[in-house]
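LOG
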Amino acid sequence: MFQGITNFIMEYKYIIIPILVWFFIQLFKFLYDLITTKKINFKRILQAGGMPSSHSGVVVCLTTMIGKTVGINSPLFAVSLIFSLVVMYDAAGVRRAAGKQAKLLNKIVETPGLTGVQVHERLVEVLGHSPKEVMVGALIGLIVGLIF
C-alpha cells in the first residue's frame, strides 16, 4: 500500500507537492494565529495574506521542480518562471494595495457622522503580502522544490 501511495505521489508530483506546500504554509499560519490570539479561526486556513506567502511558495516550488526536470533553458520553465514572477508581484503589489484601501475604507465607514453609508460587514484587509512575506514563501518553495 505504501508503495502505491509513493508511486501516486511521484506520478503526480507537479500537482501534489505544490498543493502540500500551500497546505502546510496555511496550516502554519492557522497555528501561529491560534497561538498568538488564543482563538480558533478556521477561515485562516483559506485566507490570503500573512507570513509567509503560500502563493509564492506554491509557484516557486513548481518552477523549481520544472527547472530540475526539464532544465532552465526549456520553454516550460520560462512560462513557469514568468508565471511565478507575476504571482509574486501581484501578491506584494496589487493585492497589498487593495488590502490597504480596504483598511482605509473600513475606517471611513466606521467613523460616526462621517458617512451615511450602512455597512453590514467589514472589507477584508489582509489580501496581500509584504515583500519579506513573499520572499520567505519563495524560499520555502525553492527548498521544497529542490528536495523533491
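LOG (cont.) second protein
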Amino acid sequence: MNTEELIDTLARDAGPVRPLPTPARRVLGWLFVALGFAAAMVWAIGPRPDLAERLTEARFLFEQGAALATAAAAAMAALALTLPDAARFWRWLPVIPGAAWLGTLGLGCLRDWAQMGPAGLRLTPDPECFAYIALIGSLPLLVLVLMLRRGAALRPSWTLALAALAAAAVGNFALRLFHTQDAALMVLVWQVGAVLLIAGVAALCGRSVLRWPGVPT
C-alpha cells in the first residue's frame, strides 16, 4: 500500500480518536487505586503497634514522603513516555525524590552509627521485605501496565522499569506502616534494594510486556 492509498483508507475508515488525559490526571487516578490497595493490605496485615509514635517523628515522615514522591514521579514519567512527543527528560523525573529518599536513609545510617556504634549498622537477613513489597506492588503495577498499553511505549524498557519503580515504592511505603524494622541500613539494603531489583527485572521485560513493533528500546 502506497502513501496515497494509506491516506485514503484512513480518511475513509478511521473513526474518531479520543485523546488520553494528561499524565498528571492519569497518575492521580493510579495513586487512588494504588494507595487504596496498599491501605487495604496494611489493614489486613495489621498496622505496627508503634505506628502512632512513628507518625510523630520527622525522620519517619520524611522517608515516607520521599518514597511516595518517588512513586508518583516514576508513575508520571512512565505515563508520559507513552506519548509520542514525550521529551527524554521525563525518564529522569524520579531522580530528585529518589535522591532525597536515599539521602535521608544515608543520614539515618550515620545517625545510627553515632548513637549505637557498630551495632547500629548491623545487617541481618530480612527476606520478608521483598515478598511484601512485591505483593503490595502487584496490583498497582498491573493497573499501571494496563494504563501504559493505551499509549505508545516508545521506550518500553525504560517505561516498564519506571512503572515497576512506582509500584514497588508504593509497596515499600505500605511496608513501613506494618513492618517494625526501622534501622536505616536495613531499610536501605533490604527495602530500597528490593525496589531497585524489581525495577531492574522489569526493565528486562519491557519489550515483551509493552511490545510496540519497530520501536527500539
